[in-house]
Design brief:
Protein name: Heterokaryon incompatibility domain-containing protein
Strand order of the largest sheet: 5-4-2-1-6-3-7-8-9
Organism: Aspergillus nanangensis
Largest sheet: 9 strands, mixed
Distance between the termini: 58 Å
Strand content: 15-25%
Pfam family, one: HET
Helix content: 25-40%
Shape: globular
């Protein structure tokens, strides 16, 4: 097939074998047949009136899991039947496939019969097993809902640490998207057509205009019309937004996607999504959780194929970049990503001297305890206080009167302000992991106490917020972002200009609004925050400098529009392909990414910066020792005398490289943070 990206020969052979194997199923099912089946199941008891519920036997040891042997059937109406056998992951197990699917409705409405008893399963899982059931031969499949005793929290936690082995050792991961509803049958065909036009992943990430043309062509050929709304609909299928699928699809050798009768390799889906997300026609119509998930999956799979040593994406990178993906249990916001993070040690007895973050799944602990323990562990193992950046980005709004944040709407679960609430919506992109930001770096750090609450961190109080712009929108469009830039210029003129604003002032504002290009140092194929090997990093910095020069030209062009049109937003030239217009486009994209959930500020001493949009006049700008950026802090008397709470990280122009230590009159003091 022309549109399937090339795979290594061994994997290509497995792919062809899997696609051939799973063409063997009851293909006579029509919409009418489905209705008959649904009625038959509704009018009978799938659990079997006389069958007892299946009783799980304990696993022999921590290296074992179970696998089902799914019995064949020539009829869709036949009840699902299987045997369950133990499988030792430490010794090379026999060939099996692993299922990746979205649980959907958690109601147990169907069953699979096993060894004279039954196991209750969801309707969605029953549909998957019927899809993968052979008409002629038994099949070994690992299915989480059946192979793990869901009533045993200890066994569930143990399997968190087996997941990487389970998916790596599987012959293939079967990605089940479900059965297409009316109008969805052509989704995979559209993606196939798009990839056949676009080519590979590299081509999909380069040329926005080219992608726009190919998307229109693929829509026309597949659906008979250029309906842009259809292009992103597949990302709204529940599998694409589920957090657990990131590891399931990343760690396997081969992954194949099934949507009803349609079959496609996962690589085809990731190339298509890259083209769609790098399109001015469709990018805002994609589900952000799906985009983040597939970018991460693509990144991990590519680096695993090249060299495991090059994979350097940490747990905080994953948490920040996969923020929009979903879990039903808030503890799984952390646990679902553990097998992918090389900086996390999940051993039951980690080495005391090990600098990796110790985190082991334990469903007996409360959500609040897990989040606090993880934050404290990150503080112990990091010299740059990265977890504090995440605390500001992941929090409910507003902070409650007592300075603690309720989690999941439960007033009985409270978090200190330095602990991220990983189940909340990401409010802005944290300015963490940016190597060239060194606001709080110095030759010798004073002692700090990060082992108890409140934290005691020496730092410098830089200034106080004097004024700020209205918040930029949580989801920025170009017009809204440019209007926000106009507000920033007007604020600067009001508080800092005794005469007319000049070009140097405007360049300073333009630099600040995109945090001096902080978020453009990620490569096209790399999710934000991931680290690169040294040689690749040098090349990336060179690319970033070239992009920086182009965006300066773009901002100049935007300012020219501003001056000519007297403050009114204008995009008359944004659509053409001139160099200036492309530079404007790149600048505006960076502006939208940087300023989402932030406001532009002016301080008492005349500094300018950007900060979380719920900072207020009178908030303090402080630089903790060891931090990459300044932070917005706020006194809260209910926490105790002299105790601060974190509002979030900020960019302050002229103070991102340790300059505060050279300013006369700024004294070091202990910042107590709770």
């Amino acid at each position: 097939m022309k549109s399937i990206p090339a795979l290594p020969q061994g994997k290509q052979t497995i792919l062809e074998e899997v696609m051939r194997d799973y063409s063997d199923f009851d293909d006579t099912e029509s919409d009418a047949t489905r209705d008959i089946l649904a009625e038959a199941l509704q009018n009978s008891s799938p659990f079997g009136e006389r069958l007892p519920e299946y009783q799980y036997s304990p696993l022999p040891n921590a290296n074992y899991t179970r696998v089902i042997v799914l019995h064949p059937s020539v009829s869709t109406f036949e009840v699902l039947r299987c045997n369950i056998i133990f499988m030792d992951l430490e010794n090379k197990p026999s060939t099996y496939d692993a299922l990746s699917y979205a649980w959907g409705d958690h109601e147990v409405s169907e069953a699979i019969h096993c060894n004279g008893s039954y196991i209750g399963i969801t309707k969605h899982l029953a549909g998957a097993l019927r899809r993968f059931r052979s008409t002629t031969m038994p099949r070994k499949i690992w299915v989480d809902a059946v192979c793990i005793n869901q009533n045993d929290d200890e066994e569930k936690a143990q399997h968190i640490h087996l997941m990487s082995a389970i998916y790596q050792l599987a012959r293939c991961v079967l990605v089940y998207l479900g059965e297409p509803k009316l109008g969805q049958e052509l989704y995979l065909l559209f993606l196939h057509e798009l990839v056949s036009l676009v080519g590979g992943l590299a081509e999909a990430t380069v040329d926005t205009h080219r992608n726009n043309v190919h998307i229109r062509q693929a829509l026309k050929k597949t659906f008979g019309r250029e309906d842009i709304a259809l292009a992103g609909e597949f990302t709204k299928l529940s599998w694409f937004t589920r957090r657990w699928v990131i590891q399931e699809a990343s760690l396997c050798e081969v992954a194949v996607v099934f949507f009803g009768r349609s079959i496609a390799p996962l690589e085809m889906i990731t190339v298509a999504l890259s083209a769609l997300s790098n399109s001015s026609l469709v990018s805002d119509k994609l589900d952000q959780g799906a985009v983040d998930n597939l970018r991460t999956i693509s990144y991990v799979r590519n680096h695993r194929q090249q060299s495991a040593a090059n994979l350097s994406i940490g747990i905080l990178d994953l948490l920040v970049n996969c923020h929009a993906s979903k879990t039903s249990d808030p503890r799984d916001r952390l646990y679902a990503l553990l097998p992918l993070a090389p900086d996390v040690n999940t051993s039951s007895s980690p080495d005391f001297h090990d600098q990796s973050i110790a985190l082991r799944a334990d469903y007996r602990k409360s959500v609040g305890d897990i989040y606090v323990e993880f934050a404290m562990e990150c503080l112990q193992k990091s010299t740059t206080l990265d977890i504090l950046h995440c605390a500001g980005a992941f929090r409910r709004r507003p902070i409650s009167v007592d300075g603690l944040r309720p989690v999941f709407g439960n007033a009985s679960i409270r978090l200190p302000s330095f602990v991220p609430d990983w189940a909340s919506q990401r409010r802005h992109i944290p300015l963490r992991g940016i190597d060239r930001f060194k606001s709080g770096f110095c030759n010798k750090y004073p002692s700090r106490d990060l082992q108890k609450i409140p934290l005691q961190i020496p730092g410098i109080v830089l200034d106080v917020v004097r004024a700020k712009t209205p918040k930029f929108s949580d989801v920025l469009l170009f017009e809204e972002a440019l209007q926000g830039a106009v507000h920033a210029i007007q604020l600067y003129e009001t508080y800092l200009c005794s005469t007319h604003i000049n070009i140097d002032d405007l360049e300073r504002i333009g630099r600040t609004l995109i945090a001096d290009h902080a978020l453009t140092y990620s490569t096209i194929l790399l999710i934000s925050g991931a680290r690169l090997p040294t040689e690749e990093l040098k090349e990336e910095h060179s690319m970033a400098e070239r992009r920086k020069l182009a965006m300066v030209a773009g901002f100049h062009a935007i300012l020219k529009d501003y001056q000519v049109h007297d403050g009114k937003v204008s995009f008359d030239q944004m659509g053409n392909t001139s160099i200036i217009s492309l530079a404007k486009l790149h600048y505006m994209r960076t502006l939208c990414e940087t300023m989402q959930g932030r406001s532009f500020l002016v301080s008492d001493r005349g500094y300018i910066g950007i900060a979380p949009d719920d900072c207020v006049v009178g908030d303090t700008i402080a630089i903790p020792y060891g931090a990459r950026t300044p932070f917005i802090l706020r006194f809260n008397p209910t926490l105790g005398y002299g105790v601060w709470q974190i509002i979030g990280d900020c960019y302050v122009d002229g103070f991102m490289n340790g300059e505060a230590f050279q300013v006369q009159g700024l004294e070091i003091e202990d910042l107590l943070i709770s």
